[in-house]
Write a structure and sequence with these properties.
The chain is an alpha/beta fold. Helix content is 38%, strand content 15%. It has helices at 4-7, 16-20, 37-50, 60-80, 93-105, 122-135, 152-158, 181-190, 223-226, 292-308, 310-332, 357-366, 382-385, 401-416, and strands at residues 25-26, 87-90, 113-116, 138-141, 163-169, 207-211, 230-234, 245-249, 267-270, 276-278, 336-338, 347-352, 369-370, 372-374, 390-394. A seven-stranded mixed sheet has the order 2-8-7-6-5-3-4, sandwiched between helices. Strands 11-12-15-14 form a four-stranded antiparallel sheet, covered by helices on one side. A hairpin with a 5-residue loop joins strand 9 (267-270) and strand 10. The two termini are 39 Å apart.
Length: 427
Amino acid sequence: MATKNLNDFKIKNDFPWFKNHPDLVFFDSAATTLKPKVVIDAVTNYYQNYSTNSHSSDFPLGYETNKIYQDTRETVAQLIKCQPNEVVFCASTTFALNQIAYSLSFYLKPGDEILLTVSEHSSLLLPFYRLAQEKKIILKFIEVTDDGLITIENLKKALTNKTRIVAFANVNNSFATVNDVKAITKVINNYQLKNLSEVEWPFEKILVVIDGAQAVSHIETNVKDWAIDFFAFSGHKIFGPTGIAVWWTKAEWLPLLKPLILGGGMSGRIDKDGHFTLLEPPDVFEAGTPNLAGVFGLKLAIEYLLKVGVTTIAQHQKQLKQYALSQFKKNLADKVIIYNERQGAATLLFNVNNVFAEDVANYLGHKNICLRSGNFCARLLSDVIKSASSLRVSFFIYNTEKDVDKLVLALQQGFKDGGDFLNDFFK
């Protein structure tokens, strides 16, 4: 049984959502994960028992709030294998990627090249699109396979002496394709930029930016071993609250970067003549009162994730996807097209033949099955799958084979009802 190991721990009991929605099947974890009770309790704990600012450390309760805030950096460092002082808190992966692009914009000049792929999320694409408009840099796209994979051969074809940044997701949010970051980065780091002075580009190498929003709870993350330069992920994708995220870069790069936001909590001295100083990293990137309740929740979310085990989760998703594929082939073989059968384990990306994805998703929603239709904020995805939209089933630890059976049964019923998946709305 695909679900045996995790069901032995009665994993659904950890999530109050299922007590409130016992009849619903949740297949939208790629958008946001459900929250275990320990995380909800941690957020409540902050508001009920702390409710103090981490900047107010003159009294014991404020000091304790700041201690938990700083301890969470260490918890993050344990998860992604970095130094705690390299961990920066922010509101979202979107904010993080904008902050990274903004910081690097000061070193880019017209004609410099940034490499992306067409399967990336808008949060990764748009900050660099804006730089292309404002700084006259050149955006190039690494050719990917028909299921979104970056190959070493295609990467080598795209690299030039003008390449300054390569940015991609190590786990794609639609295909769930797992790119081999270590192998990709090795090629990039071995590419010698010629006739480039430190004044022109102080990093003296091609920088690797990884969108890790879909990856952290699915594969073991090791930013040091991967030899990358930037990494970002969101708490709400790994059992945590919304509104809290992390971005990382190696300590040697932090002093070279400028904060996107200025304000309280990160300033040193402010003079009347217009001069000011800022604190050292990571504090300089955390202006204003942080999302303290979110940080409290993030700490418990990561601890929960580590307790369950990233490898255990990945294996469960892999087995569950294989079960779903077998049931689709057995019961829906000539009625659906699957786009990511070969790659990835966290999602099943498909369409019902000759039916709009949105119509199918709405139909399934009325059958108590929650999944996503569209392009999943990957606006260029249609270039890969040759369809304007599709359906995404995203598996997580609280999904079971019974959930898959309900999905298949609902799809079968849709065909029995005429096959256009609209009959429920026009009865």
